[in-house]
Amino acid sequence: MSERLTTDSRLWRVIIASALAMFLVNLDFFAVQVALPDMSADLNTDVANLQWVISGYMLSLAAFLIVAGRLADLLGRKTWLIIGTSIFGLTSLIGGFAASPETIIIMRILQGVGAAILMPVCLAVVTNAFPAAKVQRAIGMVFGIAAIGQAGGPLVGGLLTELASWRWVLWVNVPVSILVVYLAVTSVRQSVAEGEERRIDWLGLMLVVAAIGIFTFGIDEAAIWGWGSPLTWAFIVGGLIVGAVFLWWERRFRPPLMDLGLFRNREFSVMIGAGMAGNMTAVVAIFLSMIYLQTDQGFTPLQAGLAFMIYSGGITISAQIAGRLEKFTSWKVMVLALAMGGLGAIAMGLLTGSIVAFLVVSLFAGLGLGMAWTYTNVVTQSVVPKEKAGAASGIVLTVLIGMGGVATAIASSLTATGISGGGSPSSVIGTVLIGFGVFTLIFVPLVAFLGRSHATRSQREKLSPMD
């Protein structure tokens, strides 16, 4: 029987505060996607014109993750948890009253900034509250609770939209935000990166926001401009150039906004690469499943949300397990997760002709891909110094979420091209799913090789005599 995580009621409230904040972000993201058609009709526009309700949110989220994590380390994680939650709740409230597309888009962009603060700071708060031996379990519990929002997001979005209004999809965030702020004020202790100079790299901050923003904008607009458009590649290449300048600058500024030294930790780097592959396929499976269920199978938003709970249920189950695997070798767990997720995605692609079979195998895809996402965050937080927890989480989430956005844009472009070329939605979606499943499986031997070689080298160092 495993030892209790903690007997301190304050620490349980810290977990609840962080988990509810992450729950909010997950619930909101998936619920809003289901509400888009009703939102566009109410605001007298079309869904295409409201793409920035999703794209703008993702753009600001990806651009500010590294910045938010680092600033929280320097200026106080409790303070930034309260700031992030307040921004998220306030923009949800104002967005729910929006009378024009412009207002809702602006509020969603600002809401993305709030989410960018919350995601790394929630993990850093928990990491600094618990002893090192219990960090994995504590973070796993946070993700386990947060995953319920991911699983129930489409269902909640469908229910609120059909029974009340799309506006309640945003307003439901407000009371939860108030509860998180209360718990943060009364239970979370202030923590900062000890022994570090309180100097903020403002140039690095502007460079990283610009690099991620320009690059992500180019990827996102490629579906409209076309992958052969010079404008598309001008933004993509421009973002990469600014990113290279950012990395050059970070090697010279002290203390840097992004600690590149973290990547010298082999386990940290391997987990990020593996998590990136798993999350790219996970978000594509979510994106294509909603299209398949509503466009090809004719499901209503509520029906699609209910059916989607099978896939997201797998993600939720894996999130409950991930924090309890501290006794297992990390690369072996990740190899199993990627293998199950990749094979599950391939099976989903092969079985689009049968809705029942498609949904059954989606459970296994969700289990594997969900484990890759959660386990990456759990392990990377446990292998970095506590004073760098926020910065490390910002880096991890930027890579995973940023590349997830790239994968979604690629999948969207491939699907649109295939359908416009005469392919049936189910066959095109199936082919794209198979492709991403194969992509995930490619990382299985890579993770095994890098993980095994690192473990062997570490063992040799332990056995070698001291000089």
Report on the architecture of this protein.
With 467 residues, the protein is an all-alpha fold. It is built from 15 helices and no strands. It starts with 8 loop residues before the first helix and ends with a helix.
Quick recap:
The chain has helices spanning about 10-40, 50-75, 75-95, 100-130, 135-165, 165-170, 175-185, 200-225, 230-250, 265-295, 300-320, 330-350, 355-380, 390-420, 425-465. The chain has about 475 residues and is mainly alpha-helical.
Portion of residues within helices? over 70%
Rg for CA atoms: 21 Å
In CATH terms, what is the architecture of the largest domain? Up-down Bundle
Q: Which residue ranges are poorly predicted, with pLDDT under 50 across at least 5 consecutive positions? A: 459-467
Principal-axes shape call: globular
What's the story with the biggest beta sheet? none
What tags apply to this protein structure?
467 residues; mainly alpha; Growth Hormone, Chain: A; 3 domains; 80% helix; 0% strand; globular; disordered C terminus
Architecture blueprint of SSEs:
Elements: H1 9-42, H2 51-75, H3 77-96, H4 101-129, H5 135-163, H6 167-171, H7 173-187, H8 202-225, H9 230-250, H10 266-296, H11 301-322, H12 330-350, H13 355-382, H14 389-420, H15 425-463
Helix pairs in contact: 1-4, 1-5, 1-7, 2-3, 2-4, 2-8, 2-14, 3-4, 3-7, 4-5, 4-14, 5-11, 5-13, 8-9, 8-14, 10-11, 10-12, 10-13, 10-14, 10-15, 11-13, 12-13, 12-15, 13-14, 14-15
